[in-house]
Amino acid sequence: MTLRVTVWNEGRHEKTHDKVRQVYPEGLHQPIVSFLRDQGMQAHAATLDEPEHGLTETVLAETDVLIWWGHMAHDDVQDAIVDRVQRRVLEGMGLIVLHSGHFSKIFKRLMGTSCNLKWREANERERIWVVSPGHPIAEGLGEYFEIPHEEMYGEFFDVPAPDELVFVSWFQGGEVFRSGCCYTRGRGKIFYFRPGHETHPTYYQPEVLRVIVNAVRWAAPSAGPSVTFGQRPQPLEKLD
Amino acid sequence: MTLRVTVWNEGRHEKTHDKVRQVYPEGLHQPIVSFLRDQGMQAHAATLDEPEHGLTETVLAETDVLIWWGHMAHDDVQDAIVDRVQRRVLEGMGLIVLHSGHFSKIFKRLMGTSCNLKWREANERERIWVVSPGHPIAEGLGEYFEIPHEEMYGEFFDVPAPDELVFVSWFQGGEVFRSGCCYTRGRGKIFYFRPGHETHPTYYQPEVLRVIVNAVRWAAPSAGPSVTFGQRPQPLEKLD
Amino acid sequence: MTLRVTVWNEGRHEKTHDKVRQVYPEGLHQPIVSFLRDQGMQAHAATLDEPEHGLTETVLAETDVLIWWGHMAHDDVQDAIVDRVQRRVLEGMGLIVLHSGHFSKIFKRLMGTSCNLKWREANERERIWVVSPGHPIAEGLGEYFEIPHEEMYGEFFDVPAPDELVFVSWFQGGEVFRSGCCYTRGRGKIFYFRPGHETHPTYYQPEVLRVIVNAVRWAAPSAGPSVTFGQRPQPLEKLD
Amino acid sequence: MTLRVTVWNEGRHEKTHDKVRQVYPEGLHQPIVSFLRDQGMQAHAATLDEPEHGLTETVLAETDVLIWWGHMAHDDVQDAIVDRVQRRVLEGMGLIVLHSGHFSKIFKRLMGTSCNLKWREANERERIWVVSPGHPIAEGLGEYFEIPHEEMYGEFFDVPAPDELVFVSWFQGGEVFRSGCCYTRGRGKIFYFRPGHETHPTYYQPEVLRVIVNAVRWAAPSAGPSVTFGQRPQPLEKLD
Question: Is the pTM of this model over 0.80?
Answer without folding.
Answer: yes
